[in-house]
Amino acid sequence: MKATGDFGPTPSGIDLAENQQARMLGAVITLMIIGTLAVVLRVYTRSKSSQTKFGLDDFLRLVALCFAYGTAACVIISLKYKNGWHQNALTDSEFIALGKLLLTHVFIYSATTTLNEMLHSDVLSTHFEHSLVVVRFPVYHSRVFYYSHYHYVCRLLAPLSHFWEQYTNSEAEGTCIDVSQFFLVNGIAAVLVDVMILCVPAPIIWRLQMPKTQRLAVISILLLGGFVCIAGITVYIIIYVVMYDSIFIRTLDF
Where in the numbering of this chain does the Rhodopsin domain appear (predicted)? Predict the structure, then answer.
């Protein structure tokens, strides 16, 4: 594959034929299958139990799953425009299409994470009322995150087209958000909320009238959710390294 020339000559040692599309598609399909199975199993369990009824949390889980499908759709559609290929293999029109899909993906993803955090917090607050302040904080954080996200992007990104035109049109004028800083700060806040939600049940379980070994076993099972926190930390470390890498910045500033 030859460079399109829209983003300058190809740096030495770069194979434009290489791409990450297979890995991207595999990751998206795998995660969507897992997410769908989790929701389907929950609905099936609810339908078979005579002691529980479908509630608001079940409805919100279905809505969150639909938003998750939206993020997956953005990724799958983006493959058509060479998402996962080196920048020099893209044309201006393909880069613009990817910019629009990325911005759409960000808004849908923020709605998905907001619903998930609200669901987890509401479930915990139902069972651990004395920890209401600690549990409700993630709810308020998720709502503030969602509204501030829209406010921050819509106020500082003017016009919206400047999000991609700053790289494709040398005469483009406007203001843009600091993407790396914005996602890094919000990522740290999201990880802190996940840690809080993870730790809330531990002291309550420890005070139960159960043998010590059983209490430790139950807490250990709950702490398996810590893999989510580790994954979140890893993701945002990678984002930080990539976004502040000098070569990456020089490429975008071309």
Answer: 41-235
